[in-house]
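Per-record layout

source: Streptomyces paromomycinus
name: Hydroxymethylbilane synthase
length: 351
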Amino acid sequence: MSTAFPARELRIGTRTSPMALAQTARVTQLLHQLDPRLRTVAVPVRTEADLWHGELSGIGGKGLFVKALDVRLQSGDIDLALHCLKDVPGDVPFRAGLVVAAHLERADVRDVLVVPEHSAVRRLDDLPPGARVGTASVRRRAQLLRIRPDLRIVPVRGAVGTRLDLLDGRPTAPTTHTNTTDTTDTTDFADPAASTEPSSPAHLDALVLASAGLARLGLSHRARQIFEIEEVLPAVGAGVLSLECRRDDSAVAALLEQLNHEPTLTEATAERVMLQGLRGHCNSPIAGYCVTGPGGRLSLRGRVFSPDGAAFAQVHLCSDAPHDPAALGAHAATELLSQGARSLIDTGIPL
Ligand SMILES: NCc1[nH]cc(CCC(=O)O)c1CC(=O)O
């Protein structure tokens, strides 16, 4: 039995980073537009992955960002969970009893180049040979190396604000496992072990970040080069916020469904079915982007890379039947697999 609103207080589970909190504020605003009498409370949840400073694959992968919120949702401690769809793994089954009730209208999906505050660099091409570019994303790494094989990719994780501090050479507060401020995206972290120069992990010539993330933080002015879709194909689910609730909580499900953006759901479905068909793990260099064209026609691009980007499989399919994004996604996965994507994912080596 679910109690109807507004008698009930709606508990919104979110990660704790400034970006996650900005997203929560936005969702809260949208909910209040639906019903000004709604009572909401944001419940920041620190995830295991937030407390870990090392390689995510060492503790169970990207799925940990999602798991802590899902467990709270299952137990009834929160009523809805906010996820960046991009962070929801394609190879982990959905937790029992949970459903994504809404996909919000997609924001900019593109990645951007960010350089130190007073740098004259405008584009990737302007960076000196061997420049150090920070990103922990294997998808970005592979595609950057395709364009500029000389670059040194430094794995930097953590909150966008902290990454920018690192880039700009501002001292960052020492982050510890008991840090009480923000841990979600927090730990600004350059992994010295993975860096080619362990002695100076902090020096970076540039970062690559998501345009949508910068926008949510009011930092869009920091974007220098905005990569074209074809240059750096976005992540599956980029720019999409998904709102999850318990399947049997019909009051919340009905509320959230009003926030669903149908074209975003369609596009996300095509991309996610492709991702699931590839059975990529959390650290696979996979990119995918579906866009709705005139007449509802879908265009889906997918790419799977070797770690250095030198080898890749790619597909670009269009559907005349706008209402079957899952079939389009499955078709794209099959095509990529026939080009040797399995071997790229499993061994990093093309067939
Ligand atoms: N992996 C972290 C993450 N998850 C979602 C976004 C940005 C917003 C989005 O694409 O939904 C980011 C930051 C980034 O990649 O720079």
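summary: The pocket of PBG is lined by residues 84, 86-87, 209-210, 212-213, 238-239 (CB under 6 Å). Confidence is low (pLDDT under 50) at residues 175-200.
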